[in-house]
Amino acid sequence: MFVYLFRHGETAGNAAGKYLGITDEPLSPQGLEKARRAGSDPKVDTVVVSPLQRTQMTASILFPQAKQLVCRGLKEMDFGDFEGRSAKEMEHDPDYRYWVEQTQCMGPCPHGDATMVFQHRVWGAFSKEVERALGEGRDSLYFVVHGGVVMSVLYRFGVPKAPFYSWPLKTCEGYRCRVEYGPEGLQLVDICHLDGVKP
Fold this sequence. Notes:
Elements: E1 2-7, H1 12-15, H2 29-37, E2 46-49, H3 53-62, E3 67-70, H4 94-101, H5 115-135, E4 140-145, H6 147-157, E5 174-182, E6 185-194
Parallel strand pairs: 1-4, 2-3, 2-4
Antiparallel strand pairs: 1-5, 5-6
């Protein structure tokens, strides 16, 4: 089975470089236009999205005929007190400086998630979606989710192994992967970057 992992389109907060974990912003006009330019595939009948509207709006453009399956476990990380603020705005915030410099962004955000807690949630939810699709006999599985979600999935399941920040995506970009099961369980191999949807 092939898995397609797409990042959602751009929001105003994305364009401003702000942390938008659980903040539920819609796509901006520029984000809508870029999503349309990314192409669409009307043959896709099902796509997994998060509960946040930016993934659902993007999926409705990229895969206009698809039923959207909302997976709560694939919601973006909760950045707590950092939500809706940019690194520039927080450059003198002691909590933010500590999170970046002392924990390398892996520790808990004040009133939010720790990166490892977020990643474990994503790994479990992604595995269940793959198992469900395999059980249904599907030969492909599409996701429109968040940048942090895609990086977490490929950090855990991608082969060959690579660091978490090795898997960045711009808005409306994605990866195509093939599912295998090895000695350590689920693996994603033959990973290929996608600039947009290729029907």
